[in-house]
Request: fold
Amino acid sequence: MCHEGSPRPPGEPQGAWGKRGGPRRVSNVNLDSAGRPDKNWAGNIAFAAPDFYRPAAVSELRAVVARARQVRVLATGHSFNDMADSPGAQVSLAGLPPEVEVDSANSLVRVAAGLSYAGLAPRLDAKGFALRNMASLPHISVAGACATATHGSGAANQNLAAAITALEFVTADGDIVEFRRGDDSFPGAVVHLGGLGVVTRLVLEVVPAFGISQRVYEDLPLEVLDDHFADIMASGYSVSLFTDWRAPRLTQVWIKQRAGDGSSAPPAAITEAPWFTAPPAPAARNPVPGLPPDTCTQQLGVPGPWFERLPHFRPEFTPSAGDELQSEYLLPATRAVPAVRALSQISDRLAPVLRICEVRMIAADDLWLSPCYRQDSVAFHFTWMPDTAAVLPVVTLMEQRLAPFGARPHWGKIFTTSAADLGSRYDRLPDFLDLMNHYDPAGKFRNAYTARYLGR
Ligand SMILES: Cc1cc2nc3c(=O)[nH]c(=O)nc-3n(C[C@H](O)[C@H](O)[C@H](O)COP(=O)(O)OP(=O)(O)OC[C@H]3O[C@@H](n4cnc5c(N)ncnc54)[C@H](O)[C@@H]3O)c2cc1C
Reply:
């Protein structure tokens, strides 16, 4: 049984709350026979949390948190590791009212933490506003994405969390604490990995709604990156390079170009002429070679609203042929080309376990645990075959090859980087640990993930 707005009193027998039964995959989540999430979206993590709550009001959430000995939020479960699991309770915010309050005068929107980008974007667009950027998938929750510094692409686009101007937490004793931009600890609280409390509301900066068109180009030799990486990444508002590492070429280049931004001529990047020798795809494409394109957002240069072009995948489809795993590493954009060469040297190890690799750029920010902290970054993303045992040794090998570049792993994906190495790559990690100690002195929001990677 799933708890709709009725937190389980401490000590009540587990049986009254339903046992985790055989998994049943519905839409984007894995639900057990009692209708509660049993595994993450990818199915590689079986949640061990014995209790699950789905409060219908913030007051109920506060009571759940205050009474729990251990608690973590499970949002849409799209992370590929155990960060959303808990040794005690998991709590879903999907039952809270899905508030979206636009403050037009100040170009801000206040959003309920349980909302997904797919739920938020059309409501924002209807009011004439847009988010600056989106990730490849709109199904993820705003709060969950920001907690892990999720990003899209674009040399001038920061990660999604950088849009936050304020956020409200329920802290360990059930109190509400608000962090606002300008507060000393605000940059530490925005990318929080679930370790400071339960975020209930976020305030995001918005911009006037805009149009985008995207075009896909195919078969660009990898060597073109040697001299043109920066030009290529600057040739659109958002650019994604794809390779399967089976040959020294980019299988696809996706260029998303803003429309109506003042320039009268169509940008060269989205014409039908070859681009850096790469011909435009004659039909819509899926980034994973061989998969049908119908799950993907519209291409071929057809203009459309920002939220129907910035993600690669459409909200109405489950965006994958089946299970997959993901890893991603971010490093200084200035090291992109040597990092591509380092990965080329292990392409024979990458290719057999890989569906597709995507290379993106993200602008620097000031958020303590952001992988883009104070550095314009290039991100190397890997969508793996769903075979953890085969993938993990390759992940470790790749980390060794990317270590000289100070690569920071995506917090929500699969990585084997040690706590010591993470500590050496995040200057402000000690300050974040102080925040954890301050707001959660008894360790209510800690779990195996925080113990492994943060030493807490
Ligand atoms: C198909 C697919 C495509 C993806 N594409 C991208 C991409 O383009 N770019 C990218 O950067 N990442 C991408 N990701 C990764 C994904 O964005 C992150 O893993 C993200 O954190 C998932 O969000 P979620 O809402 O599912 O959060 P969950 O996985 O449910 O939770 C993530 C973490 O946030 C915490 N958390 C969530 N909500 C709250 C809250 N309200 N209060 C406190 N803590 C909270 C959880 O406890 C957990 O620790 C993709 C993932 C998938 C499956």
